[in-house]
Amino acid sequence: MTNSEIRKAALAALKGKWWSFAGLTFVYMLVSSIIAGMVYMGRSILTIGIQQGNYSTGTIILYIVLLVASIAVYPMNYGFYVAHLASAREDELADPALLFVGYKRFWFFVGFQILMNIIIGFGFMILIVPGVIMALAYALWAFVAHDHPELSITELLERSRLLMQGHKGDLFLLWLNFIFWIILSLCTLGIALFFVIPYIYMATYFFYENIRYELDDEPLPDEVRTDNPFTPTPETMPAEAENEVSTEEIIAQGTGNDIPPEEI
């Protein structure tokens, strides 16, 4: 699929779901902003206390709380990706419960994203371009983590990197198409971002679907629908229809051991 076809597939998947995804994005951004605000305020208080020579027990407790709060949003990042994946595959509205599915594997996603951020940060320390390349190399990590919950942190990093080999430029160009929409959203005081962000994430999901079959252990689809290229119909794939996965099963899969990844 070309990037133009991927964007069309994303629009088709979002048809009739724009408001549900706008609400999901609002909740995601609200919670993230509250946590970020708490961390910022806490750091300010902590900095003032240290400057005044205040190393009390309260300061130490505040430091620990800030440390926990700063990583608390990491599993939600995974859930936001998965909500788009689940909706596209099941043709349902956005499920807010999926935002929190990552908390079933809290330390896994915290550890993974800390390590990934270190790698990407190291790239930016070298130069902007290496940093962008590193960010693109791991851009599809959440989708890979969902489809392969058996992977360890290092294996997930490796598979995400391998999946993006030869496709970093394609994904960069896909994202570049949304620059105009992001700039236009600023004219609405950012309100339109609640619709633009789901569009970007859904397009990123279809980009993932377009290339994930390139790895040897991924099953190839037989026939697909024309309106949503990755959703099989009962007429074209009756065997697959019997193995459809519900949102509840996707939530259960957050534990990493309930559903074999080949059924997703």
Structure report:
It contains 13 helices and no strands. It has helices at residues 3-14, 18-51, 57-71, 74-90, 106-126, 128-137, 141-147, 153-163, 168-176, 179-186, 193-211, 238-241, 247-252. Helix 2 runs antiparallel to helix 4. The longest helix is centred in the first third of the chain and has 34 residues, at 18-51. It is globular. It starts with a helix and ends in a 12-residue tail after the last helix. The relative contact order is 0.14.
Percentage of helical residues? 55-70%
How many helix segments?
Answer: 13
Low-confidence stretches: 223-244, 258-264
- Sheet having the most strands: none
How many structural domains does the protein architecture include? 1
* H and E order: HHHHHHHHHHHHH
Structural class: mainly alpha
Average pLDDT score: 81
The end-to-end span amounts to 21 Å
Shape, per Cα inertia axes: globular
Rg calc: 20 Å
Q: How many runs of DSSP E, i.e. beta strands? A: 0
The fraction of residues in strands falls at under 5%
